[in-house]
Amino acid sequence: MKLIKSLVAASIAVSCSVFALDARYEDRSGNLVADVPTEKSEWQDPSTLIFAYTPVEDPAVYADVWSEFLAHMEKTTGKNVRFFPVQSNAAQIEAMRSGRLHVAGFNTGSTPLAVNCAGFAPFTMMAAEDGSFGYEMEIITHPDSGINSVEELKGKNLAFTSQTSNSGFKAPSAILAAEYAMHPEKDFTPAFSGAHDNSILGVAHRDYDAAAVANSVLNRMLSRDVVNDENVTSIYKSQTFPTTAYGMAHNLHPELQEKIMQSFFTFDWSGSKLKEEFERNGESQFIPITYQEHWEVIRTIDTANDVSYSCS
């Protein structure tokens, strides 16, 4: 929390243009998200909806996890729904920007870029039964690394996931610089694994000395015995961040958008594969969110890292 408070003042001075939507989108409501086009001819009403979950090491596992939910979405929307396994955050963003992806869960750090560059309109995320939500960034290492504190990362290699990831890159970069005056190349050697599960496995197998990861992914891997808790240890835990944002392309037909939202908020989690997987993080429902409010802390971290949401 100390880091975020110290960055808020700096973020206030940043021009709102840093967070402006790409020129192809229009924010008439002032909520930082692209609105439905005013021209009905621009509304999309596909016969098949394409859904993608944030990139993971084994997409086949999550195709099965989401299968019951997607069947529910088919009934609610009257559309065919297909699971699309994405290989990277960039590929997922480009798929929505080009109109090939309609409904998605974008990870915390890539959500702002998806909003600004792909017309992503988030409206929900997973939460516990009591409405609490979120995850923490943890820096993990293996027991024989000789690293017992953040300061002892000096001279070691530290794995990040990708530059669009909040807990896998942006938050740890800001924290290491602001709280420990530590910088890549100068104080430690950075590496990029591509995904949180890759980083976690890399630490467990001693390919990396340490890694910055989302503990929601770590907890799921531990509970499935993909890694053993004797092979990883945590040396830092951050404040709580919002988790994966779920939403849709801004230019879908408004009636279809309503049905998609309905499919999330009417899904019965009890006994489902979705609950079996995500209750490992204590999550058991979808709750309404707004990008403007719930992603404010992420935009603040991006400001500290001099990140702009310009689209190439």
Automatic annotation (TrEMBL):
<feature type="signal peptide">
    <location>
        <begin position="1"/>
        <end position="20"/>
    </location>
</feature>
<protein>
    <submittedName>
        <fullName>Phosphate/phosphite/phosphonate ABC transporter substrate-binding protein</fullName>
    </submittedName>
</protein>
<comment type="similarity">
    <text>Belongs to the phosphate/phosphite/phosphonate binding protein family.</text>
</comment>
<dbReference type="InterPro" id="IPR005770">
    <property type="entry name" value="PhnD"/>
</dbReference>
<dbReference type="Pfam" id="PF12974">
    <property type="entry name" value="Phosphonate-bd"/>
</dbReference>
<keyword id="KW-0732">Signal</keyword>
